[in-house]
Amino acid sequence: MRKNIVAGNWKMNKSLQEGLALATELNEALAGASLNCKVVIGTPFIHLASVVAAIDTRKIGVAAQNCANKESGAYTGEVSASMVKSTGAGYVILGHSERREYYGETSAILNDKVALALANGLTPIYCCGEALDIRNADKQNAYVQRQLEETVFNLSADDFNKIVIAYEPIWAIGTGVTASTEQAQEMLAFIRSLIAAKYGQEIAENTSILYGGSCNAKNAPELFAQPDIDGGLIGGASLKVADFKAIIDAF
Ligand code: PGA
Question: 174: how many CB neighbours lie within 10 A of its CB?
């Protein structure tokens, strides 16, 4: 059965000290709580090892927000999937729209990143989602389908079974405009139907598909109650423990 997941994406926020304080506070807030979802925090690279050491990783998973598309070597400034793994992190967010848009991540690059993440035992949280003009032209389904077909649908069934998908419409990220519950459910059901057509019903039922984009304590209960919404990828609201915990408690 697929897992419910609430994953935080800190983006480029928090010094090492601030990040450690945030992770420790979250760890304390969740200690003793019985959770109905897996909690993950996506920190900047520099926080990973310290955060892993400071929290109960049986309760809170740790994710990088990116990894290199190369294995190792002369790639100044890059951080490889095996380096991420060596910190004790278990997940990596890949293909976030901010990386596609500002850092030129193409499907070809993402194929290599996903493959390296899997080869190093990391769980990719693979992001997809359309911009506003595509939604306004009602072409979002074809757009997301293409993003999946060009990347994760190249995986074997065994490998696909190890990934998490996050649908994040770009127009909803950091804007305060959430997709309506119907829009989110409709897209996630569509994504699941594509997975079923490609890999079969069992794998489709086993795949956790998250919604992201201005998800908050107020809208999370209704979103998470939808049959195909298995959790959220949370940006802004993951930076405050009270807000993030309220989203976790929506399950
Ligand atoms: P947001 O970001 O929750 O701040 O909209 C979500 C994301 O980009 O992962």
Answer: 12
